[in-house]
Specification:
CASPL, membrane, two-stranded antiparallel ribbon, transmembrane
Length: 193
């Protein structure tokens, strides 16, 4: 009975390795390819968010006065722009790091450093998204108790462009969330081997 269990376990381990479950060379290659792709996606999403944000503005005439809506008038939108730029820059730098780490010998240590990097960038990205989302919500719906009026009914084009910016920024955040989950999963499996 014990011999059959040992044989079944050995058979399972061989099947797992052939399927690319952690520990195999194929798993290492696919892990780093996924890392590279998600980092490229994060960089592309933040570049798109920055481009939409800096080109968005709208002018309206209200009660005879010309009013212009622009991202630079909101500290939350400026913060989102800076966080998107930082996420983009660190995504590009981490691509170089991932390529170098894929060739290094200390695999567990590499995965741990990637995890730490991804967690910091993920928190930075979500903080920028959260700040801009709060301001965007008040801009779209207002806050009656505070006396803040919604402005998106007057500058709809600008609000829609900011919504597109937020979508791209959140996509970059979710890319880093996936990277953090992948890295933590890899660190956990490597530490147990």
């Amino acid at each position: 009975m014990a011999l059959e269990v040992a044989r079944d376990k050995a058979s399972f381990m061989l099947q797992a390795k052939s399927l690319g479950i952690p520990g195999s060379n194929t798993s290492k290659t696919s892990f780093f390819m996924a890392q590279i792709m998600l980092r490229v996606f994060a960089a592309a999403f933040t570049v798109a968010a920055i481009c939409v944000m800096v080109t968005s503005s709208q002018s309206i005439i209200l009660l005879g006065f010309s009013i212009r809506a622009q991202y630079s008038y909101s500290s939350a939108m400026r913060f989102l722009l800076v966080t998107d730029a930082v996420v983009c820059a660190f995504s590009a730098l981490s691509l170089i790091l991932v390529c170098r780490l894929s060739r290094s010998g200390s695999y567990l240590k590499s995965c741990f450093y990637l995890l730490m990097h991804d967690m910091v960038i993920m928190v930075l990205a979500v903080s920028g998204c959260a700040a801009a989302t709060a301001v965007g919500y008040v801009s779209r719906y207002g806050e009656e108790k505070m006396g803040w009026m919604a402005i998106c009914d007057r500058v709809g084009k600008f609000c829609n462009q900011m919504m597109i910016t937020l979508v791209f920024s959140y996509l970059a955040f979710f890319s880093y969330f996936a990277l953090a989950v992948m890295s933590s999963n890899k660190v956990m499996y490597q530490a147990n081997e």
